[in-house]
Design a protein that fits this description.
The chain is of the alpha+beta class and about 350 residues long. The protein is built from 10 helices and 21 strands. A hairpin with a 2-residue loop joins strand 4 and strand 5. It is globular and about 65 Å long.
Length: about 350
């Protein structure tokens, strides 16, 4: 992971998270993984040469699932340098076969390789870290024991699938007596749920990418939390809240880019979900901080373009994301602003 840029790390974590997605093919039973027709829309993996790059440089996304004698098995897939094809050993004849990249049915991240890479990447965050990887369930992995400056030894877990198996994950963590640091993949706001005390959640991508301490010798994970001196289930934030002030200097709105939390006095805090919706809210906040309160829909859409496809109307982007009109106001035809009393 040390050779990857932030976009590549985020893509890899997304692949690991989505490897549990259910897929039902026309002639196959329900299996888990990422179909190739979805891979082309995932972050930076959009062209065959990008898939080759992943297979060659990382080797994480190269598992082909097939069904034989009623069982689902795995076959390792390897790219052919310079060609848009991959090769694998046919499970039926054991002969080496070649097939186009766009014909590979399902990708899955190699769990062992991924977990080892995560441990290697996070070890530098701790004064000491003793790894002892094991799977507690298909969603929860025990990585080992870590020590921070001024803290006692505590367990470190990695979880995925929060959006599809939250209760099962919680039950597993309770059984494991997981009082320690819990790294999670994907987008999930742990603050919205009640968790047993001692469970401290942190997004894996933020720990790997955003947590860059100003002084290398100072650990970037908040050790006060593990000494019991903080009660909130939150590791030291790496970004400051953005505050919008009126002409008198009064704070009329604040936005936490780490939790995607928009706060307007007199209204309940709103956790924004969805990449495009988050980007639009952040853009509105940033412009308001510069005195631009009213932004055209055209400008919003142009400055928050999705990677591929997606809705092209503001209401469609925020559809199903709570009472969003309480926070974003259509000030006039084709223009939007933060719903703030000035």
């Amino acid at each position: 992971m040390s050779r990857m840029n932030p976009d590549q790390i985020q893509t890899l974590i997304s692949l690991f998270e989505q490897s549990l997605d259910k897929i039902r093919g026309l002639y196959t039973p329900v299996i888990e993984g990422i179909p190739v027709w979805e891979l082309i829309h995932l972050h930076r993996i959009r062209q065959p040469q990008d898939w080759q790059h992943w297979l060659r440089q990382c080797g994480y996304a190269g598992i082909y699932r097939y069904t034989y004698m009623g069982r689902i098995n795995s076959v390792a897939v390897h790219d052919i340098p310079g060609e848009q094809q991959v090769k694998f050993s046919c499970p039926h004849t054991l002969a080496i076969r070649q097939v186009g990249l766009n014909e590979i049915a399902v990708y899955q991240v190699d769990e062992n390789k991924f977990l080892r890479a995560v441990i290697k990447a996070i070890q530098e965050k701790f004064i000491a870290f003793k790894d002892s990887v094991r799977a507690c369930s298909k969603y929860v992995y025990y990585l080992g024991e870590g020590v921070l400056q001024g803290s006692t030894q505590f367990p470190v877990f990695l979880v995925r699938g929060m959006r599809i198996a939250r209760q099962e994950i919680l039950d597993t963590l309770k059984n494991e007596r997981a009082v320690g640091l819990i790294l999670y993949c994907g987008r999930f706001n742990a603050e919205q749920f009640r968790w047993p005390s001692g469970m401290h959640f942190r997004q894996l991508w933020e720990v790997l990418v955003l947590d860059q301490p100003a002084i290398p010798s100072v650990p970037s994970i908040d050790c006060l939390l593990f000494r019991g001196e903080k009660k909130q289930a939150q590791i030291a934030p790496t970004t400051q809240k953005k505050e919008v002030r009126d002409a008198s200097g009064k704070v009329v709105c604040s936005y936490d880019p780490q939790l995607h939390l928009l706060s307007i006095p007199g209204k309940p805090a709103w956790t924004v979900t969805g990449d495009r919706a988050i980007a639009i809210v952040e853009y509105l906040v940033e412009q308001a901080m510069n005195g631009r309160w009213e932004i055209s829909a055209k400008e919003l859409l142009e400055n928050t373009k999705p990677v591929a496809g997606g809705a092209t109307q503001i209401p469609s982007i925020f559809k199903g994301k709570g009472n969003w009109e309480q926070y974003i106001q259509r000030s006039r035809r084709g223009y939007y602003r933060l719903n703030i009393e000035l």
